[in-house]
């Protein structure tokens, strides 16, 4: 495929090594737990110096914290000729600028129109194809055709993004009647997965072009689209999903339990809802290679159109998809523990870090319970030593 | 002194916290950092950035406050004997901590102020009486001139054996 050759050519271009600060932290974080840190000089319970611990922790968080950095794109060690990934852009040399200008021309004038055309073809065929198939009565033939249409259109769309995907462990591919669970980086995740198999999508009904796509695809194959009002009712949502999973002839559901897009360096808390439905969980780990293009959607910074534009003017989307062996909820596990177990497996496979924080922190404030926990721990220390 | 790359890094951090994109940070911008929001003394720390009566801090103010946490070794390189005392000297670090306790900025830590800060640190887990007696004992031990309040000099005396430099410093990795 000439698209793949194009990518390889791009990869062989001289990649200038700009010395950038690695994104593994800019300050030395002291991980000593509270207890050791507030070591006592004498056997008194409270000391003025106790404040130093909280003070320093606070300042460390101000300079650099674990959470907010996950909501913006990862920084690269060596520049890939896209200004957007180069935060500390400085003029280095004439030769580099010339190379970069050539890159811009190639990307915007050559690759972009090509990709937009392909994307348009893909979406059109998806709508037309699924509508046609939807006319047929329910039968094996219909299911087969529906799968063909979905797969083909997915493939076209992936080409439209110049996606190069490597699937690992295909034997663990999600089966019918199961739930597929994956980490979330961008809306493209869904297309990446449907490129290799058919899933029943779950999501909210949208208006506009997206709505048209949703309406036509649901005729061909039982996707689960919810009205906005229905989404608020958790029981209703759970009920519909449970029904879908119970029917073993239906395609596996695709769910992203983080609930929001994270920048692909870590996996945040999984919402437990997906793990209460029952059925077999098929975890999938998706890791994008940031060298060719940044797939992360920072929804507070870019809307969907400018996001798609950025994707289409990157070099390519290169990613690895690992299908992990199916997991079941064990007898003595509750949904939260099960969710964490699945999350660990995904993070481990994809080489991502795990964070105990909720992806909802992108938009909301953190709960007070964490602060109360710290206060409780400190109080224990005061009361334990002192003869109060 | 602070290297060019460190300043660039901190500026990058400043702009990423500045959601309003107007070149200054407000208290809400700080509150958005989860690890800071759950810190029992978070509000006091945030307060340290804002000069009296102001609600916005610019990058210069941001750096000034952060400068208190530079390791003291850095000063070895710039021996400016005649200049003003650097912000990260031991004395200034202690004064910074002192100001965290001194809520009304009258250069004295009263019993009441100490109680309030203690309450922030322990939450609801210790009763008023217990907390009161902790505060009393602490003041009694440190108070030398008998005014039932701690002045900066008394504060320094109490902490003379503590390795302030190590506890109140943040090291950059590069």
From TrEMBL, chain A:
Keywords: Acyltransferase, Endoplasmic reticulum, Lipid biosynthesis, Lipid metabolism, Membrane, Phospholipid biosynthesis, Phospholipid metabolism, Transferase, Transmembrane, Transmembrane helix
BP terms from Gene Ontology: phospholipid biosynthetic process; triglyceride biosynthetic process
A Pfam family matched in the record: Acyltransferase
Transmembrane segments: 92-110
Chief localisation class: endoplasmic reticulum
Gene Ontology annotations for the cellular component aspect, listed alphabetically: endoplasmic reticulum membrane
Localization per record: Endoplasmic reticulum membrane
Domain Phospholipid/glycerol acyltransferase: start-end pairs: 178-289
Endoplasmic reticulum found in the keyword field: yes
Listed pathway(s): Lipid metabolism; Glycerolipid metabolism; triacylglycerol biosynthesis; Phospholipid metabolism; CDP-diacylglycerol biosynthesis; CDP-diacylglycerol from sn-glycerol 3-phosphate: step 1/3
Keyword Acyltransferase recorded: yes
SUPFAM superfamilies: Glycerol-3-phosphate (1)-acyltransferase
Membrane topology recorded in Swiss-Prot or TrEMBL: Multi-pass membrane protein
Gene Ontology molecular function: any one: glycerol-3-phosphate O-acyltransferase activity
CDD domains per UniProt: LPLAT_LPCAT1-like
Protein family membership: Belongs to the 1-acyl-sn-glycerol-3-phosphate acyltransferase family.
PANTHER family recorded: GLYCEROL-3-PHOSPHATE ACYLTRANSFERASE 3, PHOSPHOLIPID ACYLTRANSFERASE
Protein name: GPAT3 acyltransferase
Species assigned in the record: Scytalopus superciliaris
UniProtKB/TrEMBL annotation, chain B:
Listed GO MF terms: calcium ion binding
Entries under SMART domains matching the protein: EFh (SM00054)
CDD domains in alphabetical order: EFh
Cellular localisation: Cell membrane; Cytoplasm; Nucleus
Gene Ontology terms describing biological process: protein transport
InterPro entries cross-referenced by the UniProt entry: Calcineurin_B_homologous (IPR051875), EF-hand-dom_pair (IPR011992), EF_hand_dom (IPR002048)
GO cellular component, one term: plasma membrane
Keywords per UniProt: Calcium, Cell membrane, Cytoplasm, Lipoprotein, Membrane, Metal-binding, Myristate, Nucleus, Phosphoprotein, Protein transport, Repeat, Transport
The protein's name: CHP1 protein
Protein source organism: Scytalopus superciliaris
UniProt gene name: Chp1
